[in-house]
Amino acid sequence: MYQKEKDMVKVVDTFDLSLRQTSRIIHRYRINGLLGRKIGSGRPTKLTRSLKLQILKMSLAHPKYSAKVIANNLNNQVSHDTVNRYLKTTGFSYRKASKVPLLSAKDIKKRLDFAEDYLDYDFSHTVFTDESTFVLDQSYNIWGPRGQRVQYPARSHPPKVQMWAAISASGKVAYEIFTGNMNRFKYRDILRDSLLPEADNLMEEEWEMVHDGARSHTANLIHDFLEDEDINTIPIPPRSPDLNPMENVWSILKMKVQQRVPTDIEELQDYMEEEWENIDPIVIESACNSMHERISMVIEREGGATDY
After folding, report:
1. CA 277 to chain centre
2. DSSP state letter for 170
3. Among 98, 128, 138, 130, which residue's Cα sits nearest to residue 255?
């Protein structure tokens, strides 16, 4: 177009390029007779097709290998920076992995059986329960001079607080904060004094509950109590935290509490209560309503861990 029109502005407008881009293309064509880089110019790449294949194969077979380890295993034919850049261009990134339970063949079968049984189940009247530990001295990001190690004084055995909580598609149901470990007597008291009155008040119809297979949950005392109170439970498979929406709520709650940097056990408990109250009800509803997506993903992955 430029050879015909001799009008740089018209070329720029037609092809939606900058004036600099357009002038460089035309100049390159005048000098080399090519629109691309002159063949043989520039520093030749050391990253051959064979090395690319080896890098990809090694990163897939050994995902824990860093770019430096991969480069060393290739006898440093390319630098670890080159390995890092190449893997990024293929869509890979080296980041902290999320921990998921190690599932046995028996676990996988139980997860698949559960998913098939509850694929079309109505979870709108299900109460999801769980307990978690909050530690006073968490690991924090701290501002400090560049190049200097930044330290944060922490106790060898930091104080801990336990929290039990229950949610449903209708919203937050109940919570209890306590110290010490959960046992069958404490769990029975929590179910009797907190869960039953709050769930009966919130849920308009009969409801059932979800809890994991912790020893305090499966004790005969708890089994008899639930039976006497006519409360049904949904048998979530073992090693399946991704099938309990409460796990996602814990992640949000712990992040919010940690951001407030509690300095003592009383502050920690206060922040836990305040941040529990501050959780958006839409978050709770969305987490509970994701059960069918979770179950579908279990089937799709043949019993494997989901993204939840």
Report:
1. 23
2. T
3. 138
Kindly state the helix (H) or strand (E) to which residue 168 belongs, with its residue range.
strand 160-168
Rounded CA gap, 249 and 209, in Å?
A: 17
Each residue's pLDDT tens digit, 15-71: 888 888 888 888 888 887 777 666 555 566 678 888 988 998 888 888 889 999 999
CB-based burial label for 298 (10 Å; 0-12, 13-18, 19+): buried
pLDDT digits (tens, 9 = 90+) for 85-115: 888 888 788 877 777 778 899 999 999 999 9
**Overall pTM surpassing 0.90 (yes/no):** no
Dihedral over Cα of 31, 33, 34, 37: its sign:
negative
Arithmetic mean of pLDDT over the chain:
88
Domain residues of the chain, as ranges? 1-44, 46-97, 105-138+158-300
Mean per-residue pLDDT, 208-226: 95
Residue 111 near residue 141 (C-beta atoms within 8 A):
no
pLDDT for 3-24, tens place per residue?
888 888 888 888 888 888 888 8
Q: By 3-state DSSP, what share of the chain in percent is helix, strand and coil, each rounded to 5?
A: 50, 10, 40
> Which own/partner contact pairs does 173-179 have at CB distance under 8 Å and 24+ positions apart?
173/127, 173/198, 173/199, 173/202, 174/198, 174/199, 175/273, 175/276, 177/269, 177/272, 177/273
Q: Which two three-digit tokens encode residue 234?
A: 């949904």
The amino acid occupying position 177 is I
**pLDDT (tens digit per residue) in 198-212:** 999 998 779 999 999
The answer to whether the CB of 142 falls within 8 A of the CB of 130 is no
Measured CA to CA, the distance from residue 195 to residue 201 in angstroms comes to 10
CATH superfamily of 105-138+158-300: Ribonuclease H-like superfamily/Ribonuclease H (3.30.420.10)
